[in-house]
Amino acid sequence: MKVNNSNLHLKKPNELNTYQLNQLNTLLDECDTHDEYSGSNLVKGNEYDLRRIVFVLDNSVVGFMTPRQDSRFDNRWRTGAIFVTANFRGMGIAPMAIKKFFKNKKGYSWISNLNKASQNAFTSAGFVKGEERNSTNSSSPLPFEKGYNWYKN
Questions:
Q1: Residue 34 has pLDDT above 80, yes or no
Q2: How far apart are alpha carbons 86 and 8 in whole angstroms?
Q3: What is the enclosing helix (H) or strand (E) of 133?
Q4: pTM of the full structure
Q5: I want to staple 66 with a disulfide (CB 3.0 to 4.6 A). Which of 22, 62, 80, 136 is the partner?
Q6: What's the CA gap between 59 and 68, in Å, rounded?
């Protein structure tokens, strides 16, 4: 399946049909069993559900992100963690979703030095690498790993 601007849509959960809502619940269950996301605030039934942006490819739910504005960085938008279901990884969905979401928004992201896929995805969406800093996420598998702030104007 070819991914392009016309068949990848970003939707809020209240814009999904019943079939897609069921797919989203399955995707959230998959995410919660993934080593990097398990136990995080990405799972069902929390306040992040209302902010979630769902990636719909043709009629199928294939991923999501949970964006928010961050007052620590001039109210720039951040995506939060991005998750794409295993069968659709490597197809360019995350980079295209990032590009679509940030089209007219200033953006910020902290990306680990180890996460080359995210570095490539954000670069393709127009982000540039800023200053290096340690992660402040104490629940991270590597709580104080090195990474960079990335910005889009």
A1: no
A2: 17
A3: strand 128-134
A4: 0.83
A5: 80
A6: 25
Our CA angle for 77, 136, 44, nearest 5°, is: 60
Contact 95, 3 (CB under 8 A): no
CB 109 within 8 A of CB 126: no
Condensed to tens digits (0 to 9), the pLDDT of residues 60-114 reads 999 999 898 888 888 999 988 888 998 998 899 999 999 999 999 999 998 989 8
pLDDT in tens, 124-143: 999 999 999 887 665 555 56
Answer whether residue 118 shows pLDDT above 80.
yes
What phi and psi, each to the nearest 5 degrees, are found at residue 69? -90, 140
Q: What is the mean pLDDT of the chain?
A: 84
Residues 6+ positions from 98 with CB-CB distance below 8 Å:
65, 79, 82, 121, 122, 124, 125
Beta-bridge partners for 20 = none
